[in-house]
Amino acid sequence: MNDLSAGPTRTATQPVTIQSRGPGCLAQVLWFVFVGWWLGAIWVMIGWALIALIITAPIGASMLNNVPQVMALRGRRTIEVRGGRLYEPRQQEFLIRALWFIFVGWWASAIWVLLAYSACMTLFLMPVGFWMFDKTPWVVSLRR
Predict the structure, then answer these.
(1) SS3 for 85?
(2) What is d(CA 85, CA 67) in angstroms, rounded to the nearest whole number?
(3) Number of neighbouring beta carbons within 10 Å of residue 94
(4) pLDDT digits 0-9 by tens, 40-72
(5) What share of the chain is helix, strand, coil (3-state, %, to 5)?
(6) Does 113 map to a domain?
(7) Residue 99, class by beta-carbon neighbours within 10 Å (0-12 exposed, 13-18 middle, 19+ buried)?
(8) Into how many domains does the chain fold?
(9) Which helix (H) or strand (E) holds 125?
(10) What is the three-class DSSP state of 109?
(11) 2 within domain boundaries
(12) Region 32-36 average pLDDT
């Protein structure tokens, strides 16, 4: 009889980032150069406009949280391992995230995305720009 659970047991929570098996680096760069830079700009402007309308703010926030995927085809997920099982990471409380967005996230994300754009305009800083796009959801709403 083969016991699959006979290994060391982990009781502590361990965050693990999973990179989805999407397109490679060359495809991501080509996407950004030919499509991502203009589509991402439109996407971000629509997201901020939806947030300004207040009623559609959740849709706008969701759009801003998906900027990495639109701009550079980058999709990452963070999961936690607890007791050998996989869970979605615990987010900050809604009130904290909402206050962050109202007082910091909306303007900080504008600056952040503009800096990421600027970094992507040079071949040398493009990896930094893509990393910044990956962190955009956190800047917008403290989303992990």
Answers:
(1) strand
(2) 29
(3) 9
(4) 889 988 988 898 787 888 898 888 878 888 888
(5) 60, 10, 30
(6) yes
(7) middle
(8) 1
(9) none
(10) helix
(11) no
(12) 90
- Give yes or no for residue 3 having a pLDDT over 50: no
Is residue 11 a contact partner of residue 31, using CB atoms and an 8 Å limit? no
3-state SS, residue 132:
helix
Residue 16 · residue 80 · CB < 8 Å: yes
Residue 12 has pLDDT above 90, yes or no: no
Confidence tier at 86 by pLDDT (50, 70, 90): low
d(CA 81, CA 70): 28
- Structural domain that includes position 76: 14-141
- Of residues 81 and 71, more confidently modeled: 71
Amino acid at 111: I
9 in a domain, yes or no? Answer: no
Residue 83 within a domain: yes
Q: Report the greatest alpha carbon distance in the chain.
A: 61
109, burial (CB in 10 Å: exposed 0-12, middle 13-18, buried 19+):
buried
Q: Which two tokens stand for residue 28?
A: 């991501």
pLDDT of residue 13: 58
